Amino acid sequence: MDKHIKTADVASEKIVEWGEAHKIETCFERAEKLKPCPIGLSGACCKVCHMGPCRLVGKNAEEEARGVCGATLPTVAARNFVRMIAAGTAAHSDHARDMAFTLLAAATGEAKDFKITDVRKLYRVAGILDIEFEGRPVDDVAKDVALKFIEDFGRQKGEITYLKRAPKKTQERWKKWGVAPRGIDREICEAMHRTSVGVDHEPDHLLTHGLRTALADGWGGCMIATDITDILFGTPVPVKAEASFGIFKDDEVNLVVHGHEPALAEMIVDVAGEPEMIAYAQSKGAKGINLGGMCCTANEVLMRHGIPTAGGFTNQELGIMTGLVDVMTVDYQCIMPAIAELSKKFHTKVITTSEKAKMPGAMHIEYDDHRAREIAREIIKLACDNFPNRKKEGSHITDKFPVIGGFSHEYIEYMQGGRWRGSFRPLNDAIMAGRIRGVVGLAGCDNPRVQSTGIHKYLATELIKNDVLIVSTGCGSAACGTAGYLTPEMALENAGPGLREVCEAIGIPPILHLGACVDNSRILTILSAMAEEGGLSDEIGGMPGVGIAPEWMSEKAIAIGAYFSASGVPIIFGGESPVEASQEVTRIMTEVWNERFKGPFHFEPDPEKMLALALEYIDKARAALKLKKYEPGKFGAERVLMDMAARREIEKAAKPHIGL
Ligand code: NFS
Predict the structure, then answer these.
(1) Which pLDDT does position 396 carry in this prediction?
(2) Domain count, the chain
(3) pTM strictly above 0.85
(4) Long-range contacts from 133-141, C-beta under 8 angstroms, 24+ separation
């Protein structure tokens, strides 16, 4: 990878260069100018009180350095890390809370513009939550489901409800190590308490609470957000879409939905097709209304409606710099405040829509569940009104790539046997036989500190070449999509022979786009279903699977990594380690978490080493499960040390799967 090239995406690089020539600064130049503070970067800066900030550096810092209060480097690094988990969990979970209240308002008729789209999913969720659904009005069931979810946020004792969706053995580990979360808000609150000055100082004890909080994110906030979004707007099935800046149209109103909360974006999708709205656009000289997405709101509407995406995190400024965006709505999370100022150099109107998030320089139209359709129409009209203000300046129409998205857990099950016989058996069999070497979750942000999207692309191509099936989410999916990797052809051209055979037989791409970042919860349910299916590991830990966030930047990514670790998945993050300063904290996260949960958490900046480490974990897991050693090009081999009788025993012991 050429370090001088700022992004590995050709279209993005073109716009960055145009920006440089026109003295328009982006995150790429700012990342070059503003080097990270090495003390904060490695976790050695403590600023939890006003005696500091204390910088714990110097020779033998681990043994000798103390803050004014006496806090050691391991305490400080662990505290900083736990605070990142708490912030990430708060972000996902507050989004989930908003969705729960939207579901409640839809069920009670207060949010009259929303209805339950996927009744089947509602019933399945009600079943898991022990809510009676047969013979009851749909809205009554939805109300009970919403209220039950809302309880999970404020629960003071007991456990969050969805923990029971994990394999029994995984649950037992959580009990044994005391990490089963109580209420989501309670764990976040306690994380902030414990990490404030003078409370919890023992690194392992602190980090254990970090995992407890993270589990409240994965099996709470993220899973609740995914399920409610499916209930309200439909469980995704494969859908064709497009990606990159070429999705913008010269002769139509371009409206971009950016952020994470899907409710308003869904309403905009709904309203944009109204003849009245189209006529309004035409009255302003446009041929129609063209919707596009950015970041995770893009993933939400791509998965359910095939709305095209302009890309991930680092593409948001560049989208405006195309000069083709008439309105960009932003709700919350991963919104660069820079876009408000930048938009003034073009004709674009940036509109903040959440009551929680405003930006100096942006317009604010506050979203309200009770007036969703009206607000969506207002925003679309504004975009139409702005269309005639478009200048030629900055206009970049680039290529676009086809994308197949929409791989929900339910669809992956369905595609392996149909509606009545759907299961994870074929996938487990393919892994056992060695056609598929293992599974990698490729997720997380793209980042201007590295050659943006480049590490995603490198790992995606190398992993599938090595017969590793990839499930992707968030900006990982956007990076793959804007490179043209999310198509079945990718398997034909680039996948190893075993993986290619499986992809061809089922008709899927080798990289399955599972949705937004909160939809990493779909990976948890897939892994649980694979464990229940039998033949591989009987818990999430020990599966030939790894999670990688090669270009992470958000605290949300840290929360996700930590909940996968605690659930039993080895995790590899790119970039410098935020706990680098403490060997003790690094040891706990890699060695101790591996012993307790089978989920070590690594930071590894070198992409080649990331790949090697991921394959090493997969091969070790295969060996421990006594599956045949993976050999490139040789698939379909029998397993060693385990005959058919032994395999039948495992299958008999496997419980009927409890997922959806
Ligand atoms: Ni995830 Fe989605 Fe992207 Fe990273 Fe931000 S948009 S929630 S945090 S940058 S993947």
Answers:
(1) 76
(2) 3
(3) yes
(4) 139/106, 139/107, 139/108, 139/109, 140/107
